[in-house]
Structures are given as structure tokens and as C-alpha cells.
Design goal:
about 375 residues, Aspartate Aminotransferase, domain 2, 2 domains, alpha/beta, eight-stranded mixed β-sheet, four-stranded antiparallel β-sheet, single chain, Aspartate Aminotransferase, domain 1
């Protein structure tokens, strides 16, 4: 008997609306052609510390291969707490998650109900929009204006209202490289206090801030500190993106709720990898890594500036956000531009349209990851400028 093909599976409306990866097809093309990938932020620099790898092997061989406490291995939480300001109680205010991606989803699921509104800066990391949609919340976008990628305070105020439950921030930001200043954070704090909103801030790039620029965690800002959830990660700072180790930082009351949601989603991150980071005597100096990252930023920006792209200052993180309109004229199409560069130079960039709520706003931009080894960036220079 022939099997019917007419049946269509029932899926939730939230899941049906989730976009797939905007880079999937391009990455397959790049791999087929042996191209250099500057689209994804997967670290090529820094490299994982050798003692970290050895600590993971030792943890597995010593039998640390079963469940740990869902909130995370305590020595790891203590180590994370040592890196954070102001002081954080690792027992009651930190939760280890399966990467920053899980941390973001847990923070939203613990904070908003379907129909609640979440304020987001636009452009922004595309997974923010997807995570808000999965939580059933309604995004309220605040446009950032080029070339400095700042918001109009009137637009920010207009995005808040009676249904606002959270504002989702990212500093340093993906893709723009902006670091939010104290005045901006104070404006956001005043609105969060007025509307009783929680600030969820992705601070995964806080290790990489350049040119002596001050960087503030939301936990250091009155009005935000007491209503904040911080999303953190070891993926970029320790170059272990495949280990999927992130964390959530919040006050004890919020942490209790976050941990209940976290237990339901994953019940915990990989035990031996947590143990490794918690016990390794890391040979990698994060301050040195930040200086080296800024040199890579300068090298990549010099290459693509000579190609003809325009840039606002990249204040932190690991991405350049480039205006390619000098190369495309009025025919803006970021995907077409990326494909042409892939063909002519064998270098893959990320189309800018994916980072905007209205993709048309991003058609003249591309994102360039520069957290790569210097030799590779010099090869990019050779390919891009000779093509």
C-alpha cells in the first residue's frame, strides 16, 4: 500500500516563523571552493590554551563524565565570579549554560510571557529576533543610525510602553562593534525604571574592547544593576566555541527562576569541560588577547578599506561592519556582493541584510570577522587586493 504524502505535520506558529540560518548555503559554497571564511565568528584567534585542553582530558580520564549540579560546576562558577565586577555570589547569582545561545533563550523564557514586548536595537544579532519570537514576545525595534550606529533618544522612548517587559542589549555589539556609553545606559535605565522592564544584556564580547575605551557592564549602572540579567560566554574569550559553555548572571531571586528554566531545557552543560575551565591554570592572558585582537581589527580594516569599503570605528568585539556602497553604486544587494567576492577572491563575508528587522536597510553592508590568525588575514589581503 502506497504511503500518503498529503499529510503536513502540525508545528507551532512560533516555530513555523523561525528563520533558518542566513549563511547556511553560503558556507556550503565556501567550503566547496576552499574559500576563507570571514563570515562566522568562530575563533581562529585566540587559540585554546594548551593547559585547558589537558585539563579537559584529565577530567574525562579521572571519571568526571556524569551529571554535575544543573547550576554548574562550583569551581567554574567561582572562577567566572572572579572575572566579574562588581562582586557576584557564585552560589546564588551564577548559572552555567550550554553556551550563550541557551542563556539567551532561558533569560527570555524566564522573563516574558507571550504577547509581552521586548525592545531591541536594530541592526543586531539575528538570533535575538529569533529568540524573542520563540518566546512568543513582540519585538519593538529602535533603529540605529549610520555611520556611528547610535539611536535617537526619541525613538528609544517611543519603543517602551505598558507591555514592555524587557530590553535586549549587546555591548560590544554584533555586528556594529559599538560599545554602549554611560549616557546611553543611563537613558535605558531611566526607561526600564519607568516601565518596570528587565534588561537582558549579552556581554560575551566584553573581553575585547579597544583603544583604551571604557566598557561598563549593566551590573555597574544604577537603575540597571538591580533589574539585569547578563548573558556571558567562554566561546570567544577562551576560543572554545565548540565546548558550548556560557553563563547567566542575575540577582538571587531571578537566578532561582533562571535555574528552573535551565534545568528543563538542558539540565546542565558538559561536566568535564566545566571542570577543565574551573581547574586549568590558564596560560592565555586575556588582556594580551585583547591587544592582539585590536591589531587584527586594524589589519582587516586596512585591507578592506583599500578595497574601497567604508567603516565606522569598531570599538569592541570581533567584527567589522562595512559599507560597500562605494563598490556597488546604487545597486545595493549584500548577498550578490558577497557572492561576487567569493567568486573573485575566494573570501566569504556575511551579508548585512540579515542583521536588520527590515532587510532593505542592510543591503549596503557586510560583516567581516577578524578573530583570525595574522597569517590568514594576510592571505585575505593578498586575495582581496589582487582580485
Amino acid at each position: 500500500m502506497a504511503r500518503s504524502t498529503a499529510h503536513r505535520p502540525t508545528v507551532s506558529s512560533r516555530a513555523a516563523l523561525l528563520p533558518g540560518s542566513s549563511l547556511g548555503e553560503l558556507l556550503l559554497l565556501a567550503r566547496e571552493r576552499g574559500a576563507i571564511d570571514l563570515a562566522l565568528g568562530t575563533p581562529g584567534y585566540p587559540e585554546p590554551a594548551p593547559d585547558l585542553i589537558e585539563a579537559a582530558v584529565d577530567a574525562m580520564r579521572s571519571g568526571r563524565n556524569q551529571y554535575d549540579h544543573p547550576s554548574g560546576d562550583l569551581p567554574l562558577r567561582e572562577r567566572i565570579a572572579e572575572t566579574l565586577v562588581p562582586g557576584t555570589d557564585p552560589h546564588t547569582e551564577l548559572t552555567v549554560t550550554v553556551g550563550a545561545t541557551e542563556a539567551l533563550c532561558v533569560a527570555l523564557l524566564a522573563t516574558v510571557d507571550p504577547g509581552d514586548e521586548v525592545v531591541l536595537l536594530d541592526p543586531g544579532y539575528e538570533q535575538f529576533r529569533a529568540a524573542v519570537a520563540l518566546a512568543g514576545a513582540v519585538p519593538r525595534f529602535v533603529p540605529l543610525h549610520p555611520p556611528a550606529w547610535r539611536y535617537d533618544p526619541a525613538d528609544l522612548a517611543a519603543a517602551f510602553g505598558p507591555r514592555t517587559r524587557a530590553v535586549l542589549l549587546n555591548s560590544p555589539a554584533n555586528p556594529t562593534g559599538r560599545v554602549l556609553e554611560r549616557g546611553e545606559l543611563d537613558e535605558i535605565a531611566a526607561l526600564c525604571e519607568r516601565w518596570d522592564a528587565t534588561v537582558i544584556c549579552d556581554e560575551v564580547y566584553g573581553t575585547f574592547v579597544f583603544d583604551g575605551r571604557p566598557w561598563l557592564s549593566v551590573t555597574e549602572v544604577p537603575g540597571l544593576a538591580e533589574r539585569s540579567i547578563v548573558v556571558g560566554s567562554l566561546s570567544k574569550s577562551h576560543a572554545v566555541s565548540g565546548w558550548r559553555l556560557g553563563f547567566l548572571r542575575a540577582d538571587a531571586a531571578r537566578t532561582e527562576t533562571l535555574r528552573r528554566v535551565h534545568e528543563l531545557t538542558t539540565n546542565g552543560a558538559a561536566t568535564p569541560l566545566q571542570v577543565a575551565v574551573g581547574t586549568a591554570a590558564l596560560s592565555m592572558d586575556l588582556r594580551t588577547a585583547a591587544r592582539e585582537m585590536s591589531r587584527r581589527r586594524d589589519l582587516a580594516q586596512d585591507t578592506f578599506s583599500r578595497k574601497g569599503m567604508k567603516f565606522a570605528p569598531t570599538e569592541g568585539g570581533c567584527y567589522l561592519f562595512a559599507d560597500v556602497s562605494p563598490l556597488t553604486g546604487r545597486q545595493h544587494n549584500s548577498r550578490r556582493f558577497v557572492l561576487e567576492l567569493l567568486d573573485t577572491a575566494g573570501v566569504l563575508l556575511a551579508p548585512g541584510a540579515a542583521f536588520f528587522a527590515e532587510p532593505a536597510r542592510g543591503e549596503q553592508y557586510v560583516r567581516i570577522a577578524f578573530n583570525r590568525q595574522t597569517d590568514l588575514l594576510h592571505e585575505v589581503e593578498r586575495r582581496v587586493l589582487s582580485g
